[in-house]
Amino acid sequence: EFGIADNLITTSENIFARQRTSYEINENHILNLAISPTYTSRKADDLLIDGPFDPALAQGTLFDLVTGLEYKLELFNKRLQNIAFFKNYRQNVRIESEDPSLDETQIEKRAVNNFGAGNGIRYNWSERFSTKLSYEYAIRLPRQDEIFGDGQLVTENLGLRPENSHNLNITFTYGSKAYARSNWQVQTNFFVRQIDDLILLLVDANEFGSFRNVWSATSTGVEFSGNVKNLLKGLTISANATYQDYRNTSDVGPFIRFRDDRIPNLPYLFTNGSGEYQFKNIINNEDSLSLFWNVRYVNSFFVGWESAGLEQFKAVVPDQTIHAVGLTYRLATTKLQNSLTIEVQNLTDAKVFDFFGVQRPGRAVFLKL
What is the DSSP-derived secondary structure letter of residue 353? Predict the structure, then answer.
């Protein structure tokens, strides 16, 4: 369908470890150290190529090492909590490939070393109301699929740079008293992100793409969430909504012509809600039956840059609303715990889509024991 026939086998191997060490100076002062190394090896083979040169045989390796040091402080009978942290991000990329014109192995490699830091402070003004303010200068290292591509429709980009951003959040939380009959909580979070070298998958007119760095972008938005437990005895409901204004702010480079456009292929408004009703002691004192319902809404968004081309000819991922319903039966004894869940996803069999308008499954029934 895409031109020259191939039969490509791509293999990735990942080795990772997570080490966390905590030292409690006293009950109000705690130090945490976390180390996370990850090694990825990627290779491919086109089975239809028998000759000495197979361009798919290029082998790539990726090594990430993220180290974080955190200091946690609690004061005023734990009403004030402050967490300060420092991170180091290291990444080494290496690709080996055969060059038939030189009859030798070509080696491309790159190493990056970045630092990040942040601080979060939370204060409980009362039993019911708290405020949290946080800032982080964060680094996002590119993943192996972003650097090496997929061997088919996404090409490699060894020069892909890490994404770095300034992130500011302020959160307000208000809830019920600890022993109220109905336990409820509402939360509002305002956020601002200033991103340099944003990593974005961009597709050309031939449907081939690559992950590239957009010079700079800004995201501002707000999130609302709330939940109520025991609104009626056994009934729990929750909902949340997010609006984000995610814009290209590049003033140099190839993306300057799309300045002030929304970042493509990303929704800017999405919400979801859920409800669950639980019956206890159906057959005996050790079982329960839960009926649940979930709904998710995503507003329509453009696949490409919104200012490129005429709107009536542009690819759009349409509005979509997805419902799911199901039930879970639990039976727990002192020695054995059992649960059975039956769930119907996309109950209305709506046409729903992922990024780039790739269609997702219609109505489906799942059984889990």
Answer: B
